[in-house]
Amino acid sequence: MSERSTFFETKIEFLKGVGPQRGPLLNKELSIFTYGDLIQYYPFRHEDRSQFHYIQAISEELPAVQIKGRLKDWTVLGEGHKKRMVASFTDSTGSMELVWFQSIPWFEKVLRRNSEYVVYGKPIFFNGRYSITHPEIDPLTPENEKAGTWQPVYHLTEKLKKRFVDSRSIGRWVRTLLELSTPHIRETLPDWLLTKYRLMPKADALWSIHIPPSPAHLHQATRRLKFEELFYNQLRLIKSKILLQNEFPGQIFDQTDRTTVFHEKHMPFALTNAQHRVLQEIKEDFQKGKQMNRLLQGDVGSGKTIVAFIAMLMALDNDAQACLMAPTEILADQHFQGLKQYADLLGVTIAKLTGSTKKKERTVLHEALRDGSLHILVGTHALIEDEVQFQNLGLCVIDEQHRFGVAQRSRLWAKNERIHPHILVMTATPIPRTLAMTLYGDLDISVIDELPAGRKPIKTVHRYDAHRATIFGFLKDEIAKGRQVYIVYPLIEESEKMDLKDLTDGYESISRSFPDVPISILHGKMKPVDKEYEMGRFVKNETKIMVATTVIEVGVNVPNASVMVIENAERFGLSQLHQLRGRVGRGAEQSFCVLMTDFKLSKETRTRLDTMCRTNNGFEIAEVDLQLRGPGDLTGTQQSGIMDLLIADLAKDGEILKAARASAQAILEEDPELETPQHAAIRGHLDNMRQSETNWSRIS
Ligand code: ADP
Ligand code: MG
């Protein structure tokens, strides 16, 4: 390893001022183990210490002021919680008060009357005087007399504060470290990139992000470090994608007998342009002789299933088999029923495998898969089990990706040892482009961004609980017209018991309000057979209202259901609301979504509800969600590692990400292995990153 990495691997306790007492504290509280960790512990904001204010010129408008002056005298006033220490503080232009409510004995001990200090804090005007409560106060020294800096503020924990580690202690250690580090900091980006994007050199950026000479420097430092982070993030993703593409061959599917027949004779509707485009992308993948790893994004109802089916047919036309994996039994069943209609027309064999498939059936099924007489297998996780062996699996479709981990994806690969199956992952959770590039940078991405023609947009409204009677009246009318209704209750694990009670209470009150209407109830605590039974009744239109928890969230298709009422809508995230709403609007009728809430709502909740009422576009909703929540929560997947960004913010840094990605792409196209001398620095830095990650995994 290079000298550089050894230096930054130095344990933090060896830094002057930290020592063996505070070292472990920093390890535990802030995950700072090494010099490298500390130098990358970036402040989250800065305080303006670039100038001194005169007391005469203070105003309440100022968020904070820094004043150089003399502490005259103080008195302790009041009793109990009103007890306070009030000091008078003057400079050449006037005088003001400094007030402490806490740690009075300590301040009485350390402060010196008639001495010069620098104070900093938020000024308020009270009783004809300016004062600062709990100011930061330091004896005037030749150093702080100069001012001229923006002081970093770091995130801290309560425990650190109790042990007297504050932002300024960290700032001091960082400064010491920066001074020591300067000869060890190497540039990690090639010169031409620095020039092209006018990026600050690395060493300057590290200084400036902690101790910026000016706000402009801070801005440039931040931009540079974000670029670097996203550049390496993308470089690694694209590199592993190239590796995937080159490493694994894929079957070539160029025969199209049944596919053509299906297109010409049996296609139930005209495909949308977006569906055509995506099919073309898949078809091209199938000609390449490389394994396809493609993500298909499309809003609920955009028609992903037919695309998947046609892709499967292409596999079948070339003597390969196909499987489709869904996250729940209900969904697997719906896919099975839907695809079977098409399959039967074409003489294609299809079967379903789930956890509840009987042993005897399984044996038959396993046999048929192995001898190739079964063409398509639809199922749940049960598909992954080892005894499920295919004669020649050519395509695996995974529906609703966010329920499946990456590890499971690779277990599907192993279903064909000779030549890995092509993989098509379908998700109805639209992800903003910036996020998709980072989360799924190792997959090719296709998007269906268009709904089939003739769909009426769902009308969405927000109503308060107080208007329930009106809503129930509306539901009665819709049911009288022959429609069906979902009423959904939230269910989260921590409050499971109470939520279940909400649901059953709700069910009872609905039963009372709709005495003549058959009603289904569905929740996660029911046995699979009972769930299936209730769902079945609703699908067959035997029941008119489905009272349910979010188990109906994913993929369920009942075109006649045209009203969705979401109770306690404030408790759902945006993408979840959108998913739920997607259960209606599937048929020819006008559909409605009613978001029910209490009166008291936070600003963020209002934004969520307003967004839902304003648009049906999943990508637009995903953007808002990203802005509101940040990328961490949005995906529902634990794609750890990929998302560990220190400084870049995927919600805000889309432009930087694009530039970083384009640069990474260009470099890897020219030099995929990063072997040429001009890329030596990049390669060195990548190796260092890998090295410190392995070290890290040893620690944790
Ligand atoms: P999702 O993308 O949510 O999985 P589906 O594949 O379930 O959507 O399709 C939703 C409904 O739209 C289905 O009833 C399907 O038959 C229908 N559909 C799909 N594509 C078209 C199209 N091009 N024209 C008309 N209806 C379509
Ligand atoms: Mg679907």
UniProtKB/TrEMBL annotation:
Enzyme class: isomerase
Primary role: Plays a critical role in recombination and DNA repair. Helps process Holliday junction intermediates to mature products by catalyzing branch migration. Has replication fork regression activity, unwinds stalled or blocked replication forks to make a HJ that can be resolved. Has a DNA unwinding activity characteristic of a DNA helicase with 3'-5' polarity.
Keywords: ATP-binding, DNA damage, DNA recombination, DNA repair, DNA-binding, Helicase, Hydrolase, Isomerase, Nucleotide-binding
Source organism of the structure: Arundinibacter roseus
Family annotation (PANTHER family): ATP-DEPENDENT DNA HELICASE HOMOLOG RECG, CHLOROPLASTIC
Source domain of life: Bacteria
Catalytically driven reaction(s): ATP + H2O = ADP + phosphate + H(+); Couples ATP hydrolysis with the unwinding of duplex DNA by translocating in the 3'-5' direction
PROSITE patterns hit by this protein: HELICASE_ATP_BIND_1, HELICASE_CTER
Start and end residues of each Helicase C-terminal domain: 474-632
Domain Helicase ATP-binding: from-to ranges: 285-448
Gene of this entry: recG
SMART domains: DEXDc (SM00487), HELICc (SM00490)
Gene3D superfamilies: Nucleic acid-binding proteins, P-loop containing nucleotide triphosphate hydrolases
Gene Ontology molecular functions: 3'-5' DNA helicase activity; ATP binding; ATP hydrolysis activity; DNA binding
Enzyme Commission code(s) on record: 5.6.2.4
Family to which this protein belongs: Belongs to the helicase family. RecG subfamily.
Keyword Magnesium: no
Keyword Hydrolase: yes
InterPro entries registered for this protein in UniProt: ATP-dep_DNA_helicase_RecG, DEAD/DEAH_box_helicase_dom, Helicase_ATP-bd, Helicase_C-like, NA-bd_OB-fold, P-loop_NTPase, RecG/Mfd, RecG_dom3_C
Protein name: ATP-dependent DNA helicase RecG
GO biological process: DNA recombination; DNA repair
